[in-house]
Amino acid sequence: MGGTTADGSSADLMVDLIISLDGYASAEGWPGWWGLEGPEYLAWLAEEGEKGHTFLLGANTYRLMSRMSEEAEAQGPGFSEDEGAALTGLAAVPKVVFSSTLHAPLTWPNSELVTGDAVQAVAEMKRTRTAPLSTLGSLSLCRSLLTAGLVDRFRVVVFPVITGSTGRERIYDGYPDVKLEMVESRTFDGRLQLLEYVPTVLSGPPGSGPA
Question: Which residues form the Bacterial bifunctional deaminase-reductase C-terminal domain (predicted)?
């Protein structure tokens, strides 16, 4: 999907989302992770954080996650030990923030600000970098990158809740049609389902024209 560096390698990009069963990213009045994160899932998050990904995020996610990370670092109330470790660990991870409203230098450690077009910037990162790239929240950014055909993997962790009355941030509104080839699945803590796919953006329903 992307170009390659001089040695023939390229940076893979993964869209990584958590969702309710009915496709929301969050719900009003519910705690983070809908209160259903467990030790197996949190341990997996910590392992993922050690794989050398560079995280891509927008301004709203940056503000939210940097604040939560700082609160966890200060051992603020409301975070379990495992949850706090997962949040504070994000400070050490390379992050690229796409925003026209934030200003450098960013206060969250290891955060690089990009003020230009995100799709063009990520396409260039895929051509010139080798470390894997992964989104962090940032629904509109994920949608733009997928629509542009830049996404190599599309991964969701489905939480077993339906938040029809309180759900916020519908994930798939505005998406193109996408064919998904499953490459991995896993269950955490007996209730959370990880699903990972190779996406192919379609020009229309199968059989209606070229993919």
Answer: 13-193
Dihedral sign computed on CA atoms, order 50, 63, 141, 109: negative
Residue 2 pLDDT exceeds 60? no
The C-alpha atoms of residue 134 and residue 16 are separated, in whole angstroms, by: 7
Model confidence pLDDT, tens digit, residues 152-190: 999 999 999 999 999 999 999 999 999 999 999 999 999
Q: Which of 206, 199, 211 has the alpha carbon at shortest distance from 135?
A: 199
Q: Is residue 175 in a domain?
A: yes
Q: How far is CA 108 from CA 22, 119, 160, in A?
A: 32, 23, 32
DSSP H/E element including 17 = strand 13-20
Q: What distance separates the 2 farthest-apart alpha carbons in the chain?
A: 55
